[in-house]
Amino acid sequence: QVHLVESGGGLVQAGGSLRLSCAASGSIFSINVMGWYRQAPGNQRELVATITSGGATNYADSVRGRFTISRDNAKNTVYLQMNSLKPEDTAVYYCNADININRFLSSGYWGQGTQVTVSS
């Protein structure tokens, strides 16, 4: 089994910063793309940022320049540094990872989500 555990969410004022972490554990051979998604009440889950095993990144237009995604391959952990937070960033943030459990089989996994609330 594979587990993704997120941490770092909370309540912050507009303009503030938070850092999310997501650690993958279990039967992991290697990890391909890791990413962060978010879902606000009444909205669909949307992409925030992704990062490949080689470090290539992709961001949603709404967060580019304010958020930074990074990863520590040795720790199977992905991070999301969120700066200049806005009330519209309020959502449950989910970690996602495409994980190879052996040389031939990969699957996508989700974390349980962590709440980020930005007050105005």
Describe the structure.
The protein is mainly β. The chain is 0% helix and 59% strand. Strands 2, 4, 5, 6, 9, 10 and 11 form a 7-stranded mixed beta sheet that branches. A 4-stranded antiparallel beta sheet has the order 1-3-8-7, with no helix packed on it. A hairpin with a 4-residue loop joins strand 7 and strand 8 (77-82). The mean pLDDT is 97.
Low-confidence stretches: none
Main pleated-sheet profile: 7 strands, mixed
| Radius of gyration from the alpha-carbon trace, in angstroms | 14 Å
The SSE order reads: EEEEEEEEEEE
Helical residue percent band? under 10%
Would you tell me the overall average pLDDT?
97
* Class inferred from helices and paired strands: mainly beta
Cα end-to-end separation: 40 Å
Strand content: over 45%
Number of helix segments?
0
- Count every beta strand, where a strand is a DSSP E run of 2 or more residues: 11
Shape: elongated
Note the topology.
Layout: E1 2-7, E2 10-13, E3 18-26, E4 30-39, E5 46-51, E6 57-59, E7 67-72, E8 77-82, E9 91-100, E10 106-110, E11 114-119
Provide a short characterization of the protein structure.
The chain has 120 residues and is mostly beta strands. Strands 2, 4, 5, 6, 9, 10 and 11 form a 7-stranded mixed beta sheet that branches. A 4-stranded antiparallel beta sheet has the order 1-3-8-7, with no helix packed on it. It is elongated, with a radius of gyration of 14 Å.
